[in-house]
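User: Could you check the structure of this?
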Amino acid sequence: MIEILLRSNVADLGKIGDIVKVRDGYARNYLFPNGFAAVVTEDNKRAVEKVRAKYLASEAERAEAARGLAAKLSSLTVQIAVKTNEDGRMYGSVTASMIADALSKQGFKVGAGAVRLKGNIEEIGHHDVPVHLHSDVDAQLKLIVTAL
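Assistant: Sure, the predicted structure tokens are below.
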């Protein structure tokens, strides 16, 4: 095991500026060549601390923007009309990308990956849809699925 200093965020390992222990081969073959980590030295700590300060400031701005967007989305109701048969059953289902498209038509830039459906919506009616905007910020969107 070797102790390293992370120069950028690495999924399932840590955030920028963290000192973590990893296997030698992982550090040598992946983290060091890709610039994700450095050997723990005082010079590297100072350099990474400057980058970390900039990262934390920009992360705070993104979180604040996400909170503002979450407040707007929580008060918003989105309506999607779908084709149904004579019995009122839907052909197909409402997907996360359909919800993201409906939001973009209303001026909100939210990717389909941020819409966190447990499964596609297959029923007409009112639904609460979770939207993940930031690591700390989630919103509940009100969705109404109607028949065409």
